[in-house]
Specification:
The complex is a heterodimer of chains A (283) and B (323). By secondary structure, chain A is α+β, with helices and mostly antiparallel strands. Chain A contains seven helices and ten strands. In chain A, a hairpin with a 5-residue loop joins β8 and β9. The relative contact order of chain B is 0.17. Classes of the chains: A alpha+beta (283), B mainly alpha (323).
Chain lengths: 283, 323
């Protein structure tokens, strides 16, 4: 419908309309982009929403909500760990992308660094030797006395600079426990394919070795007791069962820090003794 | 001159570059513009000449070497346990000295509301470092996602040339909105939600600790950039870029523009990640004979590389007067 006498009149307004239309489209697109990014970011809250799921965090970790808010996801704790116990989570476990955690059965923290290096490495205070005063502290997480590390018991300063446990060991399946059954143990604790490492003071004070390179020969299995790195945390006790029979039973005591070595070394499958992450000592 | 900084921040936050008023033009600039008007230039020939005189990827090569070295140093430090640069890009220790990414630090401070000494030291060091080096210099010289996005961008530009895809732009102000929202979410919910989304952290950790499923998110972002919107993450979303942008407002290191040398053929704006900072190169726009490019500039040097007449150059403020 072009008017021959005024050929140029509609053109500029057409251009302006086109520009306005593009601007309007861009505005709408921007709103949609905003909504989409916000929608996706709610997925980022999955670790918070599923915080009721108990996870084993590295030693010295703050309580879960504080830990999630303060962890900067750099993995420095991963890098300093001499036994590579600490792993960063991916997106499939809901533990938080890049947030550290420990799977004790695969590789427990055996304190072979002597000084809880992961706490030392943490730049944001997500892992701390001592919690700031204003932070919530569950009384049952504190240990009564400074934990004595058996490996450096003869040092002038034998204690670990850590006054809180990450969890507590528990004999979950007494029936499966070799000691309870009165059985011994011979061979590699977790088989030839197990990749986990541990420091044995009698082998090398500073260098952890693969568990499979250190076979045992025990008349009565006490692996969890003999490998426990903390003085007085676990012992074999004679316990009278319901049937009136006296059996040697691994018994967890107050100094237990929940490091998970007992869970890692337990030779039965699945482990008879496990660590309950974030569980405190209740007398 | 405070005005100049304010304008550069306004444009960075999403404002359209303002055309200078006639009164703002200096005599020198007016004279140059006047002579440029009288010159009749053959634009096609100029472009050809321009292409011939481009320094072939001089800064690009240097930048990629630096970027890859930084990121691989993390990997090498961990894998060979040489402990030069431990951690990831979000937080690290270089020879024992704490370095913390400013945006990650901000998120953690807002969420956790408690700042320990190491966090403070690391943040302060990095702040001073990037203040001296230009703020968003981080983006183009250190960010591993930038490297991926830059190469995805090549593919995007190629596809646009072949008319297979079209670029869909967004309003640049959305980045400011995202910055504020992510900060607000961290503060209110006490959780650093941006850190779970950040492709920078994901790529950096993947390089060091091995790939994971989270890289799928990064791939989706790159596909979005290749097929839908050029450099969408860096241009419209990433709050890290804006945080470093603020740091670089008063930085002494920047790209400087010399009106007299410019032929206005516009090659620089085509390669620029943030072309709004190069608004002054449009014929007749520059109110002064020499201008500093604004805070949103990532100092990547692409414009310096493509400029045939040396109108765009890296410069350290103050050095001009001394030398």
């Amino acid at each position: 419908m072009a008017d021959e006498s005024k050929p140029k009149a509609p053109a500029p307004s057409g251009i302006i309309n086109k520009r306005k239309l593009e601007e309007r489209r861009r505005f709408l697109r921007s709103i949609i982009l905003g909504a989409a990014v916000l929608g996706i970011s709610t997925l980022g809250y999955i670790p918070v929403a599923s915080a009721w799921r108990v996870r084993m965090r590295p030693p010295g970790a703050l309580e879960e909500p504080d830990f999630l808010s303060s962890c900067i996801k750099c993995g420095q704790c991963v890098q300093v760990c001499p036994v590579q116990a600490i792993k960063l989570d991916d997106i499939d476990h809901g533990f938080g992308v890049g947030v550290p955690h420990i799977v004790s059965r695969e590789q427990a923290c055996d304190f072979s660094c002597d000084a809880v290096q992961c706490i030392l490495a943490c730049p944001t205070g997500a892992l701390v030797y001592k919690k700031p005063a204003f932070m919530p502290l569950r009384g049952e997480m504190r240990v009564a006395n400074p934990p004595i590390l058996i490996a450096k018991e003869k040092d002038p300063e034998p204690t670990l600079n850590l006054m809180e446990r990450t969890g507590l060991a528990r004999l979950a399946r007494p029936d499966a426990c070799l000691a309870v059954q009165g059985k011994g143990f011979k061979g590699q604790a977790r088989g030839a394919d197990f990749k986990g490492k541990m420091r044995f003071i009698e082998v090398d004070r500073w260098k952890p070795i693969p568990l499979r390179d250190h076979p045992f020969d025990l008349p009565l299995c006490d692996l969890c007791v003999r490998t426990c790195p903390i003085r007085g945390a676990i012992s074999l006790q004679e316990v009278v069962g319901k049937d009136g029979v006296r059996r040697m039973t691994p018994t967890v005591h107050e100094p237990c820090l929940g490091c998970g070595v007992c869970e890692m070394i337990c030779p039965v499958e699945p482990a008879a003794i496990v660590v309950d992450a974030r569980k405190g000592w209740v007398a | 001159m405070a005005n100049k900084y304010w304008e550069s921040v306004r444009v960075m936050l999403g404002g359209e570059p303002r055309k200078a008023q006639p009164a703002e033009y200096t005599e020198e600039a007016k004279t140059i513009h006047f002579y440029k008007k009288s010159e009749k230039q053959d634009f096609g020939a100029l472009k050809l000449e321009a292409r011939e005189h481009q320094k072939k990827k001089y800064w690009l090569k240097r930048r990629w070497i630096v970027l890859l070295s930084i990121n691989l140093l993390f990997t090498v430090s961990y894998w060979f346990d040489i402990q030069i640069l431990e951690g990831a890009l979000t937080a690290s220790r270089m020879l024992g000295f704490h370095l913390i990414d400013l945006n990650s630090a901000l998120q953690v401070m807002l969420a956790h509301k408690h700042i320990i000494v190491n966090l403070f030291i690391g943040t302060g060091t990095v702040f001073v470092l990037w203040l001296l080096l230009g703020g968003r210099t981080f983006c183009s010289w250190a960010c591993p996602y930038h490297f991926l996005a830059e190469n995805a961008e090549r593919l995007h530009v190629y596809l646009v040339e072949k008319k297979k895809v079209t670029d869909h732009t967004f309003h640049r102000g959305v980045r400011t909105v995202f910055w504020a929202l992510f900060a607000l979410m961290a503060f209110v919910t006490g959780y650093t939600v941006f850190e779970t989304l950040s492709p920078v952290g994901i790529v950096s950790r993947a390089l060091i600790y091995g790939p994971g499923l989270a890289l799928g998110w990064v791939v989706l972002l790159l596909l979005f950039e290749v097929f839908y919107s050029r450099r969408a993450w860096c241009r419209y979303i990433c709050p890290i870029g804006l945080t470093y942008g603020f740091v670089g407002v008063f930085s002494p290191l920047h790209v400087t523009y010399r009106l007299a040398n410019c032929h206005h053929e516009g090659e620089c704006r085509k390669v620029c990640e943030v072309p709004h900072v190069l608004d002054c190169i449009i014929k007749g726009r520059a109110p002064e004979a020499q201008l500093d490019i604004g805070a949103d500039c990532t100092r990547c040097g692409m414009c310096v590389d493509v400029c045939p007449s040396g109108a765009l150059q890296f410069e350290i403020k103050g050095l001009r007067k001394i030398m």
